[in-house]
Amino acid sequence: FVQSTHGKTHLCYEGYRYYCHHTNADDSKYWKCVKKYCRVGITTYANGTTKRSADHDHTPNETDKEVLNVRQNLKRKVVESSSPIDSIVDETYANLQSPTKERRKTREPLPKNINDLPYPIPPNYQKSQSGEQFILYDGPIAGSRCIIFSTPSDILYLSQSEM
Predict the structure, then answer these.
(1) Which of 10, 13, 31, 81 is the most exposed place for a label (fewest CB within 10 A)?
(2) What confidence category does residue 20 fall into, taking pLDDT thresholds of 50, 70 and 90?
C-alpha cells in the first residue's frame, strides 16, 4: 500500500496501482486501476486472496509507487526538519536512481524494428485506451511480417468515403 498525493490509500499489486472504489458488505474491497481508460479492477478479501477482473491495456510501472513514496518522505522531512527546503530536496534528489535505469528494470526495451516485436502481438496491446481493437492483422504477406492498424470506426469511415 502507498499514499497518493491526495492522502488516499492505493494498492500496489504486480506493478500496477489501484484506488479503492468501494468496500463491500463482506469487508472485501474493490479497487480500480488508477489509469483513466484501463478497465481492470481487483477485489481483495479479508483472507488475503485477490481476484482480478481483466487484463491491463498498459505495462506495469514500479516507479509510480517509488515516486509517491519519495513525495511522502519529502513532505514528512519538510515538516519535521529545521533544514531549508532546498537542501532537503537536493539531498533527496541526490539519493535517487536515474529514471532511465529504473525504466530498464520495469519495462521491456522499446523495439527498434518490426522484427523485435513479439509475434503475435499480445491481445492486451491490440486495443486502444478506449478498448477498441486497432490491430486488424499481424502475420505474413509475401514472406514478410505485416501489421495492419485500423479501428472498426476507421474502416466504416473509409467505406463511406468517395475515395
Answers:
(1) 81
(2) very high
